[in-house]
Amino acid sequence: MDVRVLGAANEVGRSGFLVNCNGTKLLLDYGVLFGRRGSPPQYPLHVKPKDLDAIIITHAHLDHSGNVASLFVSGNADVYATPPTFDLSKLLIEDMLKIEKNSHPFDLPEVNNMMKNAKEIGFRQKVTKGNATFELRESGHVIGGSTVLVESEKKRLFYTGDIKTHGSRMLREMDLDIGEIDLLITESTYAKTEQKPRKESESELIEFANEVMDRKGILFIPSFSVERSQEIACILRSSNFKHRIIMDGMALKVNEIMFRHPDYLRDPQVFSDAIRHATSIREHSERILAMKEPCVVISPAGMLVGGNAVYYLQQLSFDSKNGIALVSYQGEGTPGRKLLDTGTVSTRGKDLNVTAEVKQFDFSGHADRKELFDMIKNIKGSPKVWTVHGDTESCEMFAQEIHERFGLETYAPKVNDEITI
Ligand SMILES: [Zn+2]
Ligand SMILES: [Zn+2]
Question: 303-338: per-residue pLDDT in tens?
């Protein structure tokens, strides 16, 4: 079995790995890396669609799914993923094309073509293509999100995609019953970081929400539309929160998709109870009306880039009664990062000081350092290890540490590196 790195080498974004099982070619993920400050998006190395026997998407996040449709300009390979991954990928890719018009090498017809070739599979459902057998396993990272096991000629590859070993309020734990492995390709996003226990972050957020309500303010929680928004709604509901919870923007479409796939949730009852108790905003008049009394507003975008977040930010930032809870990762150069670092927002070209109380909370969807090592401890055999999907320092340090702790042969590969097992 040969594996070639097409992307996500010393970076978070544009994941892509080409697996050649004695002539049978599988592509694991094919994502996008968004350009910073107006620079164009980047993609994994090019592959010829007609050479591919199967494409496997681990999960819907665009750094894993965002460039799959480019393979359907001329090709028609089978694409495998879980049902929620297909539904969410379609939503996210279409949204990306709407926001970044004409900056990608494909458009809606290719997305439709991709969906026509979609082969839905469940977790632990084995598929055989030529010389390869593969299956998806639960990753705990996002609804329908999976890891991939590939088996060929008695060699086994385990690719983590993105993982959260503990899962979340919405998602079950990662499936760690992987068995003996010859090559492990693991994400390294938070290999350097220890996260706060989820329970602590949850109590802090609930406390902050109640403080803001007590002073008759509105709490704005800009949040990723996939999963984080729903998780926050569930956390507040579980605390018997007395005030209104408003959900807005693309999170509502994601709610619908999640309702369609209850089997992929940890507890569908908890989810539906939280969402049914929240108020969905469909029109601007409802938005204005909703903000007449103390409430919590959950709306994308998580990093305050575009969408309704801009509206809420302008409305709520300049009153000290209000609060802003940042619950998502804030990338460099985003308005969310700026708010954290400087306490200002840009309004009509001017930077204005925010008087609302701003707090950040730790709610990562990725395994932290401890979880990553726990995952590796669980793997049997003496696999070679590739550390990917992290900045250079994280990937290299993680590789070094795995080698020291477990005596495994490890490497933080570069794009186009190849390995034979
Ligand atoms: Zn992800
Ligand atoms: Zn990712």
Answer: 888 778 889 999 999 999 999 999 988 888 889 999
Distance from residue 255's CA to the centre of ligand 1 (Å):
18
Per-residue pLDDT tens for 379-409?
999 999 999 999 999 999 999 999 999 999 9
Q: Identify whether the C-beta of residue 68 lies closer than 8 Å to the C-beta of residue 38.
A: no
CA of 32 to the centre of ligand 1 (A): 12
Ligand 1 centroid, distance to 141 Cα (angstroms): 7
Bridge partners of 310?
A: none
**Three-state SS letters, 386-404:** EEECCCHHHHHHHHHHHHH
Helical (H) or strand (E) element with 236: helix 228-238
Sheet holding 357-360, edge to edge: 279-280, 244-247, 295-299, 219-222, 323-326, 357-360
SS3 16: strand
Compute the distance between CA of residue 387 and CA of residue 95 in angstroms, rounded to an integer. 30
Instruction: Sort strands 155-159 and 146-152 into parallel, antiparallel or unpaired.
Output: antiparallel
| Distance from residue 13's CA to the centre of ligand 2 (Å) | 6
| Length of the chain counted residue by residue | 421
Cα–Cα distance between 281 and 284 in angstroms, integer? 8
Q: Of 3, 4, 16, 9, which is closest to residue 414 (Cα–Cα)?
A: 9
Q: What is the CA radius of gyration of the chain?
A: 22
The answer to whether 11 and 23 are in contact (CB under 8 A) is no
> Cis before residue 278, ω within 30 degrees of 0?
no
Q: Are 187 and 139 in contact (CB under 8 A)?
A: no
CA of 59 from ligand 1 middle (Å) equals: 7
Q: What are phi and psi of 39, to 5 degrees?
A: -75, 155
pLDDT band (50, 70, 90) for residue 348: confident
- How confident is the model over 102-132, as pLDDT tens digits? 889 999 999 999 999 999 999 999 999 999 9
**What ligand has the least distance to the C-alpha of 389?**
2
Q: For residue 237, report the distance from its CA to the centre of ligand 1, in Å.
A: 25
Mean pLDDT lowest for which of 140-144, 342-346, 401-405? 342-346
Which helix (H) or strand (E) segment holds residue 92: the answer is: helix 83-99
Q: How far is the CA of 60 from the centre of ligand 2 (A)?
A: 9
For residue 28, report the distance from its CA to the centre of ligand 2, in Å.
Answer: 12
End-to-end alpha-carbon separation of the chain, Å? 5
Query: What are the pLDDT digits (tens) for 156-180?
Result: 999 999 999 999 999 999 999 999 9
